[in-house]
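Structure ticket #2291
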Amino acid sequence: MGIRQLLTQWGLSFFDSPLLVNLARGAGTAFLVQVSGVGLTYMVQIFLARWLGTAEFGIYEYVVSCTLLLAIFGGLGLPTAVLRFISQYKVTQQWQQLTGLIQGTWQLTGVISFALTLGTTALILIFTDSSWIYYTPLLIGVWMVPLIALAQLQAEMARAFNKIILAYAPFRLIQPLLVLGAAFSAGQIQSPLQSEIVLGVSILSLILVVVSQWQFLQHQLKIEYQLATPDYQTTEWLKVAFPLLLQGVFFIVLNQTDILMIGTIISPESVGIYSAAAKTSVWVTFVLQAVNTVVAPVFTTLYTQNDRSGLQSLVATVAHWIFWPSLILAIAIITFADPILGLFGSEFVAARLPMTILIFGQLVNVGSGSVGYLMVMTGHQNQSAIIFGCSAITNIILNALTIPTLGILGAALSTALTMAMWNILLHVLVVRYLNVYPSILYAILPKSTDH
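Resolution: structure written out below.
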């Protein structure tokens, strides 16, 4: 059998499809941005770990985890809802609703996230002891919440308009560079570097990035789209956004519970070491993230057009795009774990086994396909929110049971297990509700076995 026939059998004959050719080009751009962003962020983490030391780096990571969780509440689930509604409004040419969506969700996110920050600051001042090791860093870091919420919203807006570079370059390329430069300068003045200083420069860099990205986005939209008198469908947006908010909260809990519980139960030093493992394992998923950046809006289009065969062909092709590079990355990272983790410092090599366990969980993630976006972009966010909720509760329970006895190894086992669980369950729901099979296992089956 020739290579072309084999590719066709596996659903990889995308060179014959204009849609998939365009997606491949878009995915290539997203891939480059993602690689650059992940690589740069990882480099910044390495330098910060060396400049701050294990304990201060652990404090920094603990605070960042808290702010990411709060930013999800501040965003109200609107970033993912915006991605879906913009795709819908563009197809139906509802320009007034499109304009209202852009302006209204930005204002709502800003107000809610700012109020949440004020409330959180008051709670820290009233109910926590100033001698608590995270007290001052949290008081500073919590002011990143509205900025992160707005950055996430703007990224999804730009992504929905296929402005991939505008969506991700500011937050994943420019902002880490600003933090790195400012932290280096601060370290020349005061050594050793403190977590409070890094959090402060992170806030300043976020302000610059969020304002600049918003200005560029507004300029691009005025040129390319018929922005009209805004029509605010706030109730409809929030109705869709609320389960997405729950799903976002559950997802962040799944990703941040281990760090938060390690910091609370064990020590900041353990947070620092575990964070190196977690951030390294995420490399396995950057192909998944890059491809999802491009294909998620297309899920909505094909589903709206009731093109199930087209949707199945797309997810089968995407499964190959995602899995094989991710598998190669996973093998490479595990093989060279010691020198990679050693970049953070000699003490971080202790994270090798937890990192390996997390990587196996990530392989289940990428092998399942784009199950999360398939559910959300086709209007099945309520069902997926239930899965994420049950998985988040399971994750909390498992971490609470394993961390006191197994330490960071227990956190890795708990997180990897729940990651595999929610991906498998979402795959079952995708098959049930959409009648498509997004996993790599189905994608490599001969096409004669299609259901």
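Closing remark: The chain has one domain: 3-449.
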